[in-house]
Amino acid sequence: MVRVSLWLVGETTVNLNLKNKVALVTGGSRGIGKAICLALAADGVRVGVNYVSSKDQAGAVAQEMTKKFGVSAVAVKSDVGKDGAMVPLFDAVERALGPVDILVNNAAHCPSGPISSYTRKAWEQTFSVNVTGAFLASQELIRRLRARKARGKIVNIVCQAAFLGSTSGHLPYDASKGALVSMTRALAREVAAEGINVNAVAPGMVMTEMVAGIWEQKKDFYLSRIPMQRIAAPEEIASVVVFLASDAASFMTGTTLDVTGGLMMR
């Protein structure tokens, strides 16, 4: 677990001011999403763990947050790519934990193959989850924040492939993440004056269940592209998300932070 409760800048202590905030993390039952949930909980955030099919895993994440960090947590089933999903999702989290302050748009669909292999349905499903789902979740959070005249944080999980493309063939996913980068900037500009910060994190390769197999097959190739000569642990991505969700990042909006071990260096 990477914990970032307090930062020291010279002789000044910077408190992230996250205790008792409420966060909703889409796709929070495993991988990077799970690490984000746990990292937020470590700093006192009450967390709603959204899932589609991984009920047991999501429930286990919620229980782990409560057991380890003493925070309230709830697992909520909802397919963010489906119409009408957002109001029930937010309602369920808010009934259990209180009004949502932080939204992490992490849920993603990632088909693979050459361009000739994709159907229109596969393309549209990817955008439905990765872009439209993030848009609708952000729209619902902003509506609720405005209703209570509150500040808030939105963190979108994108990918270095939004800028570089994939070497392993994920065209719909890469394109959708590029769209999410653009949406981050556009939305940030629109709501900045209201005290709503919108930022993104662009990971490189991260050691998750999904990556483990291909990593062993092409390890030397991937390492040759990464100056730090390793890939990230999920907790290293989560710590950056926690920073962006905190008061330490209060003057940052419309930014995409690269967490790629030096692969990007933009």
Summary, kept brief:
This protein is of the alpha/beta class and 266 residues long.
Search tags:
Rossmann fold; 9 helices; globular; seven-stranded parallel beta sheet; 266 residues; alpha/beta
**Spatial strand order of the main sheet:** 5-4-3-6-7-8-9
Q: In the residues, how many domains can be counted?
A: 1
- Strand residue content: 15-25%
Shape: globular
Distance between the termini: 28 Å
Number of helices: 9
Instruction: Supply the CATH architecture.
Output: 3-Layer(aba) Sandwich
Overall average pLDDT: 92
Radius of gyration: 18 Å
Largest sheet: 7 strands, parallel
- Unreliable parts: none
* SSE arrangement, N to C: EEEHEHEHEHEHHEHHHE
Describe the structure.
The protein has 266 residues and is of the alpha/beta class. The protein has one domain: NAD(P)-binding Rossmann-like Domain (Rossmann fold), CATH 3.40.50. Helix content is 45%, strand content 17%. The protein has nine helices and nine strands. It has a seven-stranded parallel beta sheet with strand order 5-4-3-6-7-8-9, with helices on both faces. Strands 1-2 form a two-stranded antiparallel sheet. The two termini are 28 Å apart.
Question: What is the topological layout?
Answer:
Blueprint (H helix, E strand, L loop, with lengths): L5 E4 L2 E4 L6 E4 L5 H12 L3 E6 L3 H15 L3 E5 L8 H12 L4 E4 L14 H28 L4 E6 L3 H4 L6 H21 L4 E8 L5 H9 L1 H7 L8 H11 L11 E4 L7
Parallel strand pairs: 3-4, 3-6, 4-5, 6-7, 7-8, 8-9
Antiparallel strand pairs: 1-2
Helix pairs in contact: 1-2, 1-9, 4-6
